[in-house]
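Continuing the series of single-chain predictions for the mutant panel. This is the parent chain; the variants come on the following pages.
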Amino acid sequence: MNENNNNHKLIGSFTGLRFIMIMVIVISHFEFLENIPTFGALYNSFLHNPIFAVDFFFFLSGFGLMFSNICKISVENVQLPTLNDCLKFGINHIRKIYPVYIATLLFGIFCQFSYAFYKSGINFSFIIHEFFKILINISLLQSVTGMMFFTHAYNGVSWFLSSLFCIYLITPFLIYFLRKTSKNISKNIFIIIVNIITIILLTILLAKFEKYLNHLNIKGIPTLDNLVYVSPFRRVFYVITGMNIALITDLLTKKNFIIKTKIYSLLELLISLLVIIYFVLRNSLPDGNYKYAIDLILCSCFIFFFSFDKGIISKYLNKPFFQYYGKIAMYIFLIHYPIRIYFGKIIENTFGYNYFTSILFCIFIITTTFLLSDIIKKHSD
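Parent structure:
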């Protein structure tokens, strides 16, 4: 995604935040750490929480897509896209990451077939099932199904790329509509509020839908986790919110909205502190849809405050370390999970998880993931 400003420069704070947020997601997948005495309980309570980071990437995708369009095309020249334009847009935006995705898919297929062969589970029915799973995963349309059978088939995090790809296919229409209709700050704020309400209402409706499906006792039906967490039909409103924030930032910039660097720093520190406190406490809060409202409001403010790239935290996020690893965040995301799952099965079945094996496995996942991501980055430049 291209998070450009009006001078066609990258917004460095977002690139740096990509690395931090991707590491939050990676660490949240280290569920085997629950086996470590004392620390396991702390991990489960405070670190096993990828919600905000995942939301951040959907928001950031919307922001980047809209801001890139603003930089390239004036509002007067924005044209109503054709279906062919939408298809090209979707393909162009996953083209760079797609080979890496396919590589992780092939690795997962190899591991699952090997495990099935080891368990003597390969038969005609198994092959037919796997064929359909492979087909829909290659197409990147698995998130549309809402079924874990497809969405988490070979690389459990590939649903994110699938969901984004489905949203990309309608993004040119979204950009056209928003740029033509949301020409002032108040309209954009209104749409953001509508998006937040829509997301919460969809969550409630999908929960009722899942209960209805459960009464049917049909194997493989969509689950609430997939319908709410994975589905592009709900996630699209996160992307739209990011687009509205980009429009607000652009409108303020055009109005020469300037405040002192100290104020930007204060806003960044304040929102970061709130996000950290909420991150630590979220798992201990009572369940309820109010959490989604807090997630969305906090993430909106977080994206907005860092979009100006002028505070003290932004200064540090612009340092080479954060910039480099922020740029390979999607590689880290796609690569870490197959390593975590498939090598994790070997460790679990061979040695079992304890303090020693868990720590070594953490080091192995991070080292291998970063090494492979670094190699891919160097070969893709």
